[in-house]
Write a structure and sequence with these properties.
By secondary structure, the protein is α+β, with helices and mostly antiparallel strands. The chain contains 3 helices and 4 strands; from the N terminus they run ββαββαα.
């Protein structure tokens, strides 16, 4: 998981991204594409993990920082779906460390 203004997934072998899966209709897909800003803001990626086939949205370029309101909405989704918040916490911590590493304030 990575962050710009919004969350995205960066597939990496051996890494875990927590999430929930739904079966959706074509009408649902059209609505999700509109909501996620597909194909301009996010692109849709097909994926297979073990025996499961699914798709997810991946951000087209990462910039900016997520708002507290946005992070709170992700927390709410994790709680509603029964997903361990440690996955989100790890993603946010990694993003914060990367931001510090990229900061002009810190010099080595």
């Amino acid at each position: 998981m990575a962050f710009g203004h919004h969350a995205t997934i960066i597939p990496q072998r051996g890494h875990v991204v927590a999430g929930a899966m739904w079966e959706i209709t074509i009408d649902d897909l059209i609505a999700l594409d509109t909501y996620e800003g597909f194909p301009t803001y996010y692109r849709r990626r097909r994926w297979r993990q073990d025996t499961e086939h699914f798709f997810f949205y991946e951000m087209n370029g990462i910039s900016g920082s997520p708002s507290n309101f946005y992070i709170d909405s992700i927390v709410e989704g994790y709680v509603n779906c029964g997903i361990d918040l440690r996955y989100l916490r790890d993603g946010v911590e990694n993003w914060c460390l990367e931001e510090l590493d990229n900061s002009a304030i810190i010099t080595t």
